[in-house]
UniProtKB/TrEMBL annotation:
The protein's name: HTH-type transcriptional regulator MntR
HAMAP family per the UniProt record, alphabetical: HTH_MntR
Example GO molecular function: manganese ion binding
UniProt source species: Salibacterium qingdaonense
Domain HTH dtxR-type: 1-65
Keyword Oxidoreductase applies: no
Biological function: Central regulator of manganese homeostasis.
Residues holding Mn(2+) 1: D10, E101, E104, H105
InterPro entries (UniProt xref): DtxR_MntR_Metal-Reg (IPR050536), Fe_dep_repressor (IPR001367), Fe_dep_repressor_sf (IPR036421), HTH_DTXR (IPR022687), HTH_tscrpt_reg_MntR (IPR022897), Iron_dep_repressor (IPR022689), WH-like_DNA-bd_sf (IPR036388), WH_DNA-bd_sf (IPR036390)
One Gene Ontology cellular component: cytoplasm
Pfam families hit by this protein: Fe_dep_repr_C, Fe_dep_repress
Length: 141
């Protein structure tokens, strides 16, 4: 099965999040969230419909298919995991969102799984996080 393009992934991730938060995702909501024109959203939604990630009916809205939900959920997981990882390693909060947006499409799922292992390792024991922070303080001085 062909994988979605990075642009498709951005839309699927946002649509999934909107549906989880609001129960629906309108073209205007998606456009606002992604800071694009509604006409761009409509074109992408039509592409996603053809690829069977969602069902779109003009003037009626859209619904994610099982395939779209599965991909959307995984994309949200990837985004949140990368945010957790960058936070864990001490990246300044003001950079995290843009950094995640910059790297999330360039990592393999193998790399994402290994990052998940690292995050889990540190989250299991707070003293591990403290040791990492001590190392970072020493390296900064």
């Amino acid at each position: 099965m062909p994988t979605p393009t990075p642009s498709m992934e951005d839309y699927l991730e946002r649509i999934y999040k909107l549906m989880e938060e609001k129960g629906y995702a309108r073209v205007s909501d998606i456009a606002e969230a992604l800071e694009v024109h509604p006409s761009s959203v409509t074109k992408m939604v039509q592409k996603l419909d053809k690829k069977e990630y969602l069902v779109y009916e003009k003037y009626r809205g859209l619904v994610l298919t099982a395939k779209g939900k599965k991909v959307g959920k995984r994309l949200v997981y990837r985004h949140e995991l990368l945010e957790d990882f960058l936070h864990l390693i001490g990246v300044d909060e003001t950079f995290i969102y843009n950094d995640v947006e910059g790297i999330e499409h360039h990592l393999s799922w193998e790399a994402i799984d290994r990052i998940g292992d690292v995050v889990q390792y540190f989250q299991e024991k707070e003293e591990r996080v403290q040791t990492l922070k001590e190392i970072q303080r020493k390296n900064e001085s």
